[in-house]
C-alpha cells in the first residue's frame, strides 16, 4: 500500500508544490535584460536608513556575463570591482550622465557657514578621484549630487 499509493501521492504533491513556488517566484521577480551602453542605477545594499537614497549611480552597462551578471562603468570611466545581477539594477535615462560631474575620493576638511564673509552654507575641502592633492577645492554643500 505504501509503495503503490502513499509514496506516489506524496511525490506528486511535492512536485505540484514545487511548481507553484516556481510560478510565484517567476511572477514576482523582474527578468530584465539591459543592453550594453544602457544607463542604470544600482540598489544600495548598505543603505544607512530609510531616508538615504535607495539607488546609487548612474552607471553604464559594459557587458553582460554568461551567468547573467552585469559589468558596470562609473562616470569617470572606471570599471566597478564587482558584478551585479539584473534585480539590483534600475534603468534610467541616458541624459542622467553629467559629463561635468566628478567623483570624490575623500573629504579632507569642512568649515561652517560664515554669513559675514558671504559663505551661507557648509563648505568641504574635496580631494577629487583621479587628481592630485594640489587640485583639492572647497565646495559648498549644494554642489554635491549624492550626499554620501
At a glance:
The protein is of the alpha+beta class and 148 residues long.
Taken in chain order, the helices and strands follow as HEEEEEEE
- Given as residue ranges, the uncertain stretches (5+ residues, pLDDT < 50) are none
Helix content: 10-25%
Strand order of the largest sheet: 3-2-1-4
Report the mean per-residue pLDDT as an integer: 85
Number of helical segments with 4 or more residues:
1
Largest sheet, in brief, is: 4 strands, antiparallel
Total strand segments: 7
Which radius of gyration do the C-alpha atoms yield?
24 Å
What structural class do the secondary elements suggest? alpha+beta
Report strand %: 25-35%
Q: CA-to-CA gap between the ends?
A: 66 Å
Give the oligomeric state.
Answer: single chain
Shape: elongated
Pfam family, one: Chromo
Domain Chromo: 102-148
Protein name: Chromo domain-containing protein
Organism: Modicella reniformis
Give the topology.
Layout: H1 2-28, E1 39-43, E2 55-64, E3 70-73, E4 89-91, E5 104-111, E6 123-128, E7 137-140
Antiparallel strand pairs: 1-2, 1-4, 2-3, 5-6, 6-7
Domain Chromo: 102-148
Organism: Modicella reniformis
InterPro entries: Chromo-like_dom_sf (IPR016197), Chromo/chromo_shadow_dom (IPR000953), Chromo_domain (IPR023780)
Could you characterize what this model shows?
The chain has 148 residues and is of the alpha+beta class. Helix content is 18%, strand content 27%. The chain contains 1 helix and 7 strands, in the order H-E-E-E-E-E-E-E. The protein has one helix at residues 2-28; strands at residues 39-43, 55-64, 70-73, 89-91, 104-111, 123-128, 137-140. The chain has a 4-stranded antiparallel sheet, with no helix packed on it. The chain has a 3-stranded antiparallel sheet with strand order 5-6-7, with no helix packed on it. A hairpin with a 5-residue loop joins strand 2 (55-64) and strand 3 (70-73). The longest helix is centred in the N-terminal third of the chain and has 27 residues, at 2-28. The model has no long low-confidence stretch (mean pLDDT 85).
Amino acid at each position: 500500500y505504501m509503495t503503490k499509493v502513499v509514496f506516489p501521492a506524496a511525490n506528486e504533491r511535492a512536485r505540484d508544490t514545487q511548481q507553484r513556488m516556481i510560478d510565484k517566484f517567476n511572477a514576482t521577480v523582474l527578468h530584465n535584460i539591459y543592453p550594453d551602453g544602457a544607463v542604470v542605477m544600482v540598489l544600495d545594499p548598505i543603505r544607512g536608513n530609510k531616508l538615504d537614497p535607495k539607488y546609487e549611480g548612474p552607471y553604464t552597462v559594459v557587458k553582460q556575463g554568461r551567468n547573467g551578471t552585469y559589468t558596470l562603468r562609473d562616470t569617470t570611466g572606471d570599471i566597478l570591482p564587482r558584478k551585479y545581477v539584473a534585480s539590483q539594477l534600475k534603468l534610467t535615462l541616458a541624459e542622467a550622465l553629467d559629463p561635468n560631474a566628478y567623483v570624490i575620493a575623500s573629504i579632507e576638511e569642512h568649515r561652517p557657514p560664515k554669513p559675514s564673509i558671504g559663505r551661507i552654507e557648509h563648505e568641504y575641502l574635496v580631494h577629487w578621484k583621479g587628481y592630485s592633492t594640489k587640485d583639492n577645492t572647497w565646495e559648498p554643500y549644494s554642489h554635491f549630487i549624492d550626499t554620501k
